[in-house]
Amino acid sequence: MLNFNFQNTTHIHFGSKQIQVLSTEIPLKAKVLVVYGGGSIKSNGVYDQVVDALSNHTWFEFSGIEPNPTYDTLMKAQAIIEKHNIDYILAVGGGSVIDGAKFIAAAAHYQGEDPWNILAKQEPVTKAVPLGAVLTLPATGSESNGNSVVTRDGNKLPFSSPLVRPLFAVLDPNVTLSLSDRQISNGVVDAFVHIIEQYLTYDVNGKVQDRFSEGLLQTLIEEGPKALQPETKEDVDVRANIMWSATMALNGLIGAGVPQDWSTHMIGHELTGAFNIDHARTLSIVLPAVMKVRKEQKRAKLLQYAKRVWQVESGDENERIDQAIKLTEQFFIQMQVPTRLSDVDISESDIDLLIARLESHGMIALGEQGDISLAISRKILTQAL
Ligand code: NZQ
Ligand code: ZN
């Protein structure tokens, strides 16, 4: 196992009616900015629950954070923060709203030239407005990690800081019942790929991390399709298991002390930046190709994945690996997400643009060994056609 330090300070409030804890979690003297997206929280009752819980607080609101939040939209919040001396941010929504709130929180105390440099130049965050989150879409893990992804002019870039990790997160699975099938699928697939990025690397004998990861993958394989089937989709227990799996997938626990890949995500971000494809749908296209192109480097873990996650035990090594990749693709198809670039109308002639963008974003040495060069990323994209 590799050396690691691990601390997750986000206080999780999980279950029915937990939104009411906002009344005590946020200090009464705080000046709160409630940030949200395009309005789903107004039609599913979440907004009303938040308003009720904040009835004794002083609060303002900022809405319109779009999926794959943009710098231009997020910077508009700065005027409200200044005008009302905001000293607490409450994000109510999915990963985009929470990521957006993190950037707003960091930009509010940014001292340099342009807050975009937090992403473009990876300038460290030295201070941020404290924030909490009410999660409405289980997927990203943003509710209890320090990561954020923001887009400017088609450039989709990540930053990370413990200062933007939510102080608390409310996870009520009931609020996910209003999600469309597309968003449920996206969430399950995103969480699945987060686990894979931290698991399917090379073996360092991290038994705890491996078995946690395998348990989470199996939970998503079992519960994900149930959230799409008419007989089981309203089952709050199904939603609860998906929600907790997605949080656990990217709260730092399973990634501590093991190598991490993230090449699928970095290549996927270019597909979203250039062609506006949903985040999870870029992952379901890129991951099977990564598994195929990186078969030798990932051989031992692919065999472990085949055996422990998919119970594939017959055939020679290559057959078992191929079968595990096939089952992964079948799971994605069952979850109604694309597995090929051609499924989203992207062809060979688009690959040059994607490679150029990877290069301009410095994504030239990806993967757990830093050995996925642009030439190998090209192979992966070609494999995904
Ligand atoms: O904007 P509203 O009206 O709220 O609608 C949203 C949005 O249209 C809707 N929605 C959310 N909760 C709902 C709901 N609709 C009905 N009922 C509910 N309960 O769903 C749509 C998509 O929301 P979004 O927040 O964009 O989805 P997701 O949670 O998948 O977040 C995706 C973003 O997170 C980033 C992605 O790159 C992408 O920008 N990621 C963040 C990570 C992190 N912070 O650690 C890691 C991930 O790998 C990912 O990169
Ligand atoms: Zn993701």
From TrEMBL:
Coiled coil segments of this chain: none
GO MF annotation, one: butanol dehydrogenase (NAD+) activity
Top-level taxon in the UniProt lineage: Bacteria
GO cellular component: cytosol
InterPro entries linked to this entry: ADH_Fe/GldA, ADH_Fe_C, ADH_Fe_CS, BDH-like
Cofactor dependency: Fe cation
Domain (Alcohol dehydrogenase iron-type/glycerol dehydrogenase GldA): residue spans on this chain: 10-173
UniProtKB keywords: Oxidoreductase
Domain Fe-containing alcohol dehydrogenase-like C-terminal: 187-355
SUPFAM superfamilies referenced in this protein's UniProt entry, alphabetically: Dehydroquinate synthase-like
Stated family: Belongs to the iron-containing alcohol dehydrogenase family.
Full protein name: Iron-containing alcohol dehydrogenase
The organism of origin for this protein: Litorilituus lipolyticus
